[in-house]
Amino acid sequence: MSVLAAVPAWAQEDDCLKCHKALANVKDGHAGLKAGCKSCHAETDGSTVPHKTTGKIANGLSASQPELCVGCHNKPKFSKVNSHSASAKGCTGCHTVHVSKEEKLLKSEVPDLC
Predict the structure, then answer these.
(1) 60-85, pLDDT tens digit by residue?
(2) 3-state SS class at 99
(3) Residue 46 contacts residue 13 (beta carbons within 8 Å)
(4) What is the pLDDT of residue 6?
(5) DSSP strand E in 1-114: where?
(6) Are residues 104 and 77 in contact, defined by beta-carbon separation less than 8 angstroms?
(7) Residues in contact with 25: Cβ distance below 8 Å, sequence separation at least 6, in sequence order
(8) Cα separation of 83 and 67, whole Å?
(9) Most CB contacts within 10 A, which of 10, 28, 44, 47?
(10) Cβ(76)–Cβ(84) under 8 Å?
(11) Backbone angles phi, psi at 14, to 5 degrees
């Protein structure tokens, strides 16, 4: 079996795991990782190091948050102030976007996070 066969298909686009090894643990990762790096980083040329970006948004993202996140996540559910008021800070204020050991990809445990 070749080494590339063991690499998830989403990472084979530009051999992302060569440098971004932590993203290989999709068990603790964002489900969006399976869609491929380009699903969020559409404005990134991963074949160059450092990566070149063609867009104006940081990290070569295809949209800013929360627009990028609600492209997949249910926007009405997360925009209700009484159910998820922290969303005003931006999704990455509380959540990591790639891999986390915490539930719901939180950056740390609750209530410490808050």
Answers:
(1) 999 988 888 888 888 777 766 555 66
(2) strand
(3) yes
(4) 47
(5) 44-45, 52-53
(6) no
(7) 99
(8) 18
(9) 44
(10) no
(11) -130, 25
Pairing of strands 44-45, 52-53: antiparallel
Q: Are 97 and 30 in contact (CB under 8 A)?
A: yes
Best CA proximity match to 20, nearest among 6, 37, 32, 34? 37
Report which of 8, 13, 44 is spatially closest to residue 25, judged by C-alpha positions: 8
Tell me: the pLDDT tens digits for 24-56?
766 778 888 877 888 888 898 888 888 889 889
Domain ranges within the chain, ordered by starting residue: 3-105
Structure-token pair, residue 103? 């539930």
Residue positions counted in the chain: 114
